[in-house]
Write a sequence for this structure.
């Protein structure tokens, strides 16, 4: 009897969740395409290949994967609220409890199904999503407004810290063409005394050789007795062990790396003395905290919707949608807080779970004891 019940609840859970997922994907895709058509047309004017059909094939499938991962907790929460409220309104839960099954036994299939979705989400977040983001981010900037597009693809001064004593500065760097003007490399000793300086009129990244090409360069080596050795030339190849995207990372870089690569990148930047890593640390912690939230929100939804209420399904959905959006969008707000170094990334990305877990436990225990 109980095994039949378990299969019934799992089927309801996964069926409702799948329907919500497909519905959200279709609706949001249509709205987003309509909104971004003018920007896509601007991209087509720059490159005829970048038309709407190209975006539908090479951008939106990967964009949808990112969208689903972002709103997975909301989908789970609303799905559980919806089908559990229907069970409660049809007095099916009352009948199950009256037959001798405890509320904890009734909740078992909710636990198993939420664990399955959470583990699947965990694998996707750490291994599949970065691949989808790499594909998505190749075209993402074309869908931004002019200001944000310029920030990602435009021309701007950049700098990089190669180690605790080595620095690169470029006065004007074209992020799209990977070419710049006004290159400076400096190396210091532990007392902050300059040991070496390399300047070049222009620099560009040679993808085939995986090196920077400096044109019109002038180098200066400072000896211990403060004498200087000068050198110059027309062309010089330099290998700084990293690509331009890694040397001058934007906010999208962390999204493109699977978790082992992201951890290596963060550790490498810490060794170099880079303290501006909160955006990437947020990405790292969120990949685990969001799947955990699926289990928490499943039991919160079960606790709220498993008892018949005046107002029925409507009131439960209203409460559920409100709480779900507060929960998920709190992550976005806390990303900003963390990026400004008000909170550590670990605290910021786990704070919603830390707040909702005690609330869920309280409501679940209270419901189980009724």
């Amino acid at each position: 009897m109980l095994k039949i019940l378990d299969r019934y609840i799992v089927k309801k859970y996964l069926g409702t969740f799948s329907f919500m997922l497909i519905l959200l994907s279709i609706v949001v895709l249509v709205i987003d395409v309509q909104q971004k058509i003018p920007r896509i047309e601007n991209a087509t004017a720059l490159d005829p290949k970048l038309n709407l059909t190209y975006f539908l094939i090479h951008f939106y499938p990967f964009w949808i994967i990112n969208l689903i991962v972002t709103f997975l907790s909301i989908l789970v929460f609303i799905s559980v609220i919806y089908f559990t409220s229907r069970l409660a309104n049809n007095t099916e839960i009352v009948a199950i409890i009256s037959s001798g099954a405890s509320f904890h036994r009734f909740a078992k299939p909710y636990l198993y199904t939420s664990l399955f979705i959470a583990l699947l989400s965990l694998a996707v977040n750490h291994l599949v999503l970065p691949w989808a983001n790499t594909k998505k981010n190749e075209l993402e900037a074309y869908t931004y407004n002019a200001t944000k597009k310029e920030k990602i693809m435009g021309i701007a001064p950049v700098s990089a810290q190669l180690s605790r004593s080595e620095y690169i500065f470029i006065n004007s760097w074209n992020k799209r063409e990977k070419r710049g003007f006004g290159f400076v490399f400096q190396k210091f000793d532990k007392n902050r005394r300059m040991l070496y300086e390399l300047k070049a009129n222009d620099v560009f990244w040679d993808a085939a050789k995986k090196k920077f090409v400096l044109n019109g360069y002038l180098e200066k080596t400072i000896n211990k007795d403060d004498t200087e050795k000068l050198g110059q030339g027309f062309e010089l190849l330099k290998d700084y062990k990293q690509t331009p995207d890694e040397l001058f990372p934007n906010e999208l870089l962390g999204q493109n790396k699977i978790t082992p690569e992201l951890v290596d990148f963060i550790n490498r930047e810490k060794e170099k003395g880079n303290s501006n890593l909160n955006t990437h640390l947020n990405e790292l912690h969120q990949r685990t905290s969001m799947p955990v939230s699926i289990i928490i929100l499943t039991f919160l939804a079960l606790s709220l919707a498993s008892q018949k209420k005046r107002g029925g399904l409507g009131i439960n959905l209203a409460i559920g949608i409100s709480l779900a959006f507060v929960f998920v969008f709190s992550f976005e707000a806390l990303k900003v807080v963390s990026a400004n170094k008000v909170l550590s990334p670990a605290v910021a990305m786990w704070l919603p779970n830390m707040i909702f877990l005690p609330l869920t436990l309280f409501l679940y225990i209270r419901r189980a004891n009724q």
In short: Residues 74 and 324 are 5 Å apart (CA to CA).
